[in-house]
């Protein structure tokens, strides 16, 4: 088989003369090509950024999923641990946990002499959430750690009954202080809080976020009367933050801050706030006394009016009951008459029916007699 001879291809490049028009067209082409190149590079960057974003999102989702799984496993482990511990509780603690659950606690309770552990503190914290009977809780000198204290205070955020909380001489720290601040910011029942001897601040690490959170709670709280922060390792900056909070608080009349490094000007500032609050407190108490006195008089007058109204109501009820009794008697007589008439009508109908039957039978007998005669 013979192949055709190869075809020779020649590419000729024409060099256009460097006229003004040709130069302008060439510049346009180069600008266009440069623009295309820039757009391509920009698109590549966008694609790369989009790819990185997708990878980061995927990584974050996987990390979140792993964290959620870890959290679920941890919660499951803690739940099982608490259930196992609940079955081993005995003595005063077992009774207290049961009473908390069923809202049968006394108004005041102390855990003095009761041996506690991390799991037992968690059990106690979960029972405190929905309790409605306990008012005073004493947890002083129980070796409560910062983590355990955080757990207890978190649970108390759901409790709106407790009025006195003593946690003096424990090992509470920054996390607990932060939770206490959040607790005070929303609570409207707690009146006495004792945190003496807890290192709520670390002077070696300058981080006042926990004290700021505590101060915010003091600012917003409108029911706390007594606060004990003595010997809590607080320095000058902490004192300044707390003094500023006390300027806005109007209910605290007793604030113990001994054993902290507060300078004289801060001590005076806090003392002035306490003095103002005591004057307000005494004024409110006087107003309450006057209101109670007026209310007592109004109660006596209201009681007299109530007695009069009750007597009138009794009279009206007697009249209504007599009218209703007469109405029921009439209705009863009408019902008897109706039943009697129905009975008579029924008897009359039965009588008529019997007579009709008799006539019908007589007619049949006559027809039978006639038919027999015809056959004969």
UniProtKB/TrEMBL annotation:
InterPro entries recorded: Leu-rich_rpt, LRR-containing, LRR_dom_sf
Composition bias type Low complexity, residue spans: 45-54
Compositional bias ranges of the Basic and acidic residues kind: 19-44, 55-90, 348-358
Pfam families named among the record's database cross-references: LRR_6
Basic residues bias spans: 359-376
Range of residues in the leader sequence: none
Region (Disordered): 19-90, 348-376
Protein name per Swiss-Prot or TrEMBL: Uncharacterized protein
Species of origin: Blepharisma stoltei
